[in-house]
Amino acid sequence: MGFLLENPFILVVLIGIISSLFSKAKRGGNTGPVQQPGNVEPEPGPYADAGYEPEEKQAVPVQEAGRQTLESMESYYQERKVQAEERARRLSERQDLLERRVQNARNAAGKPEKSIKAEPAGRAAVNREKLADAIIWSEILGPPRSKNPRRLHRR
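and the corresponding structure tokens:
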């Protein structure tokens, strides 16, 4: 008993469980749906009393039905074949267009225009002002101070 009084969390949980049991007993115990004993008949359909009788379809001879099915399948096949051929034609046109673009790009890249004043590829004109500007921009565009604080707080 002393263990329960020393732990208030366990005490609160026990009080909650006991109060829920008493409130359930006060309401009458089982709160689930009440079912009446005995066999329950299913409700009749919407047209049971309306005098509705489903119409009987006329029987189609088997050969005629098979012929209709065969014709519909052939027409469906023909439609799909035409669609596939059209799609293949469009794709081949698109592929030809893309191949021409790639060829034009390769031709343009293969013949670079030479400038009158050629500089070495790895060296640019470097002077004192450009170096100073580069250092300033590297500080501006560098990582933020919050990522790398300069002053450490030691306590």
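(Above: one complete record from the training split.) The helical segments are 2-6, 8-27, 62-110, 128-141.
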